[in-house]
Amino acid sequence: MKKFILFFILILFGLTQFSFAEVIKNYKVIGNDRVSKQTIINFTSTEINKDLSQRDLNIILKKLYDTTFFQNVSVKINNGTLILNVKEYPIIQEIIFNGVKAKKEIKILSEAIYLKEKNPYNKLFVQQDVNRMLNIFKQSGFYFVKIDVREERNVNETINLIYDIDKGDKALIKSVKFIGDKKFKNRKLHSIITSEENRFWKFLSRGKYLDVERINLDKRLLKNFYLDKGYYQVNVENAYTQILDKKSFSVVFKINAGNKFIFNDFKVEMPSDFDPEKFKNIYKVFDELKNKTYSNQKIKKILNEIDLIALYENYEFIDAKVTESIIGENKIDFNFKIIESKKFYVERINILGNNITQEEFIRNQLIVDEGDPFNNLLHNKSINKLKAAGIFSSVKSEVVDSENDYKKIIDITIEEKPTGEISAAAGVGSTGSTLAIGIKENNFNGKGVQLNAQLAISADTIKGLFAYTHPNFAYSDRSATASIENTITDKEKDYGYKSTLQKVAIGTGYEQYKDLYFSPAVSISSESLTTTATASENYKKQEGSYFDTIFGYNLTYDKRNSPYQPTSGFRSNWLQMLPVVSDGSPILNGYEITGYKELMDDMILTAGFYARAINSLSGDDVRVSKRLFMPKNRLRGFEPGKVGPKDGSDYVGANYITSFNISSTIPYILQTMENIDLKVFVDAANMWGVDYSSTVGESNKIRSSLGAAVELLTPVGPLSFSLSQAISKAGSDKTESFRFQLGTTF
């Protein structure tokens, strides 16, 4: 019985729908002005002699509203005529942004908003567009923007849409805080992020402004830092801000580091027809990492080995999937599944979004090019190379199908960022004051070329430098550098001489083998050496002008885990400067090596050896300006420049110098003082050899010292000071038990 009633109701409903149906014989459009009658009819998607029900009329009504051309619409059928009564929105003649002067900024706003010039004006979208603009301004640090909207009616029934924008002041960061289970001191974490606290002298710094993108970058930097320290489950919660006054914020990062993890077991799965012998380097890496602290960089090292196999062992269509399993409380198993991907070739690569950067530069970074087999590993490596160029705010890629089933199209979309930099820094210490100013462009002419101009002033030296660096000269995968330098060294007060040096140089640099870098260069210089009445007779003999053409090179083997604040590995460097055409024919040889070992969290043991030797191939005396002095960071506990051979009252430098240094941070002393780090050190060094006189003492004696250094993050910048005690020295050496240095950036 119930089924019968339900069936009856359905039949009745269907008959009712058909009873409202009517066949269209004609159209009538009322109220249209700019939109043509035929266009409106096309919007309805109806045809003559078609039955229309009430439901169909409702659909037509919705379609007409969805076009956003009409603010009012009514639809009805009368005697076979479909009557469409519309009222159009006014057209936007012009959109004006008052209060915004930069054309680039106006373009960004125009592209972001929904309402456009020559399009219908729908008030419903105005507030949405205002919110879009507010978000754009926030990303640039303007958090206190006010936007008022005005309509200006024109005689032709169009309107001008006017946004009156008061950007206000940029939001400043008054303080940066780190809370939670963060393991590391605030001073360390401050050195990781790019945001910085505002100070009145930081007139050049962009990091002092609150910027959403920069805050997100800081979160990524913090997370990567913890991952590289072994904190596999670290969680950097959303950084949030607190408004402190009308234009200052406090930025807070909440960090939960969790446990420190170690690598446990590694496993590789591969197709049965793959040769395991070709993957032997991966197994070597596995053996090295077993029971070592987890690090994200070490995982990348394994994936890089797989990349090399794909490049050199003819495994063009492979991919790798990594599965991680937590064992117990602090161990991780890794399973690398190497699979044969589908065989596709690259049909075309589209580069999108590059308004400044030349497409040629972008394509030069790609490992997988048009016509190559598509390899996902190598494609990802190409994208990472573009990101590492440092001139794009974002790089995204999408692999899409083409009309050919065996080919793919790659769309690479980049977003460019400002690449110019202005920097300034100053320091004051017991050894003198310093000031440095620099202007740098990292993408000159859109080719990734770097231009660098610097001026550095210290107590006795003024140095100006302009350098040009092309990262991939003549498509050789080698950088090319040209530089002009002018240096004035004034030691008239202490030693009675002054040197003025002009130098031009050209050079190149490239990775010869894995982690082995070769950097040759040729320089041409002219030096003028003047002396005063207080200079020694030997210095006065060297007064005059000198011309030098020098060929030099560096051979660097770099096995550090990171160029910045390394915690493991070593860096070894051999250098030689050979005279080609030179007054006095000086030849300089040098070697240095520094190793790093993290004994525990934030306890880094550093050990280094340093050696230099300079002599004349022609048997002449080595010029005073080229003689060797001990770098001040290689021998603490002694006054800089006042160690080694001494001619009368003048410290004249040596022909040979060596030093050995060992230091370590001490993390568990002053643990509660967040902005202070403690370091202990032992230095040992020697300086000897005076080629221009047999009467000057050789000063061949080991100098040594031990001490402690404190590094403190202060409101005006990092302050470091050291207390040291000389253990052994020569009779003419001058000791120094206290040294400090205070520096800041602007």
Note down, in words, how this protein is organized.
The protein is α+β, with helices and mostly antiparallel strands. Strands 18-19-20-21-22-23-24-25-26-27-28-31-32-33-34-35 form a 16-stranded antiparallel beta barrel.
Alpha-carbon distance between the termini?
A: 88 Å
Q: Give the % helix.
A: 10-25%
> What best-fitting shape do the alpha-carbon axes yield?
elongated
Largest sheet: 16 strands, antiparallel, barrel
Q: Which stretches are low in confidence, meaning pLDDT under 50 for 5 or more residues running?
A: 1-19
**Structural class, judged by helices and strands?**
alpha+beta
**Alpha-carbon Rg, integer:** 36 Å
Spatially, the strands of the biggest sheet line up as 18-19-20-21-22-23-24-25-26-27-28-31-32-33-34-35
Mean pLDDT: 85
Beta-strand residue fraction: over 45%
Number of strands: 35
Given the structure, what is the number of helices?
12
